[in-house]
Amino acid sequence: MTQKSIQGIKNINYSQFVGLIKEKNRPSGGIKTIHDVAVNAFINSSKRVLEIGSNTGFTSVNLSLLTGCKSIGIDVNEKSISEAKKYAKKQGVSKLTSFQKASALMLPFPDNSFDIVWCSNVTSFISDKNKAIKEYLRVLKLKGSLVVIPIYYIKQPPKKIVNDVSKAIGTKIEVWDKNFWLELFQKISEKEKNRLELYYEQDFRYLDRKEFILEYVKKMAKRECMLKFNKKDRDILKSKLKYFMKLFNKNLKYAGYSILLYQKRAITDEMELFLSQEIKT
Q1: How do residues 3-59 score in pLDDT, each as one tens digit?
Q2: Could you tell me whether strands 255-265 and 195-205 are parallel, antiparallel, or unpaired per DSSP bridges?
Q3: What is the distance between the alpha carbons of residues 54 and 77, in angstroms, rounded to a whole number?
Q4: Does residue 252 carry a pLDDT above 60?
């Protein structure tokens, strides 16, 4: 690679970096989250799924592997889309999955097209959240499920960490809590008269993975896609990867995430008063 391209590597954000090193960008909780959603959203081979912000295809491909569903992933990064297609072919589900470049703010699909719309945490990176959520609801079928897996803060993070993460991902992040997301989706669904009923909810906190980061970077550096770079460029990529992982690990010490499954309904049921909580022994 030329010196100009090396400088470019140093300045790219995490989303661009993932496409470059072909990292499988998983949802929070990884494959276990995908399985949990597949079971609780009743995803099977008859269902048609849209993933918003599919990145390099991990979620869409694994949903099809687990359930046999037909999935479409959209993303704005062409390199990530290319990698997603290759990943689907390698996993043997290229006939069940497709990937295309599109914006969440203007989905290229008719109304009521999908049984499942999976938006995970991508709404965090979209400035016009209202418009994006309206689009999710527009293409989701009545009785279909909206899968939301937001990352949020459960403790106040240092301002420097928030600023550094914003710079790393190329989008300004805010210190939102879980209630922000619950209220946002509920407000928009009511305004649009596309009623959302929250029927599944599970909360998680992140583990500190500091001691595993160097091992992770070493393993990633041995992958075929990394070995194609010359040593100088590969060292830059390894350094960049280590920086991102250490920064994200610091940030996630203050964060949690939830799996929220909503059903799109014709009417809203009355509020539930007497709630319960699982007893853990």
Answers
A1: 334 456 777 788 778 767 777 789 999 999 999 999 999 999 999 999 999 999 999
A2: antiparallel
A3: 10
A4: yes
pLDDT in tens, 109-131: 999 999 999 999 999 989 899 99
Q: What is the CATH number of the domain that holds 224?
A: 3.40.50.150
- Residue whose entry in the numeric block shows the structure tokens 């009623």: 195
CA distance 89 to 92: 5
- Structural domain count of the chain: 1
- Cα 23 to chain centroid, rounded: 13
- The residue among 173, 119, 129, 171 whose CA lies nearest residue 150 is 119
**Closest residue by Cα to residue 120 from 188, 28, 194:** 28
pTM here?
Answer: 0.89
**Residue 84 within a domain:** yes
Q: Terminal CA-to-CA distance of the chain, rounded, Å?
A: 56
Answer yes or no: are the C-beta atoms of 251 and 161 closer than 8 Å: yes
Highest mean pLDDT among 19-28, 226-235, 261-270: 261-270
- Strand partners of residue 100: 74
Give the single-character DSSP code of 105.
T
Q: 123 — alpha (psi -120 to 50), left (phi > 0) or beta?
A: alpha
* Residue keyed to tokens 């009923």: 197
As a dihedral over the C-alpha atoms of residue 90, residue 88, residue 213, residue 12, rounded to 10 degrees, the angle is: 120
Enclosing domain of residue 177: 3-263
C-alpha separations of 53 from 25, 45, 89, 264 in Å = 10, 22, 19, 21
Classified as helix, coil or strand, 26 is coil
Q: Which residue has the tokens 């010359």?
A: 230
Does any domain span residue 280?
Answer: no
List all residues 6 or more positions away from 207 whose beta carbon is below 8 Å from its beta carbon.
none
Burial class for 114, CB neighbours closer than 10 Å (0-12, 13-18, 19+): buried
